[in-house]
Amino acid sequence: MLIEVNEFLTNYWQAVDDKNKEEFLTFFHADAMIYLHDSNAQFPPEFYIDDEHGDGWSSTIDRIEKLTNGQVITTTFHRSPNWVGFVNSFFTFKDEKIIELHEYFSPCDDNIVPQWREDLKDEERV
Predict the structure, then answer these.
(1) Which of 18, 31, 77, 124 makes the best surface tag, with the fewest CB within 10 Å?
(2) pTM confidence score
(3) CB of 107 within 8 A of CB of 44?
(4) How far apart are CA 21 and CA 53, in angstroms?
(5) Does pLDDT of 18 surpass 80?
């Protein structure tokens, strides 16, 4: 892979924190999908950042691990006014863009799923 993964993912999480949807979408391949396994949601990237997600959000990357199968994992600590927790994100790349993102959330507060993700269970996104 020609991209510098650490810089790429640092910029990716900054776009999430900033709720910069235009920049956020530049990290994804045209056929990309996001899977949030603990809420059983899947959707294209354009639904990831919306009015509810990221308000007052801050992220700290704790670890970036490159796997032998080409995937990259980040363990990231997130904080918002409504949620605090860790996220393990598994990134799969195609043509130097994210083609699949699988996320597993581990809240620090009674295993409460953020409301924006709970709402995804009831919506048809794909």
Answers:
(1) 124
(2) 0.80
(3) no
(4) 11
(5) yes
pLDDT for 2 equals: 61
CB within 8 Å of 37: residues ≥ 6 apart: 102, 103, 104
Element (H, E) at 22: helix 21-25
- Please name the amino acid found at residue 88: N
Which two structure tokens, joined as six digits, stand for 37? Answer: 């396994």
Domains located in the chain, CATH noted = 5-120 (3.10.450.50)
Query: How far is 31 from 4, CA to CA, in rounded Å?
Result: 22
Distance CA 112, CA 82 (A): 10
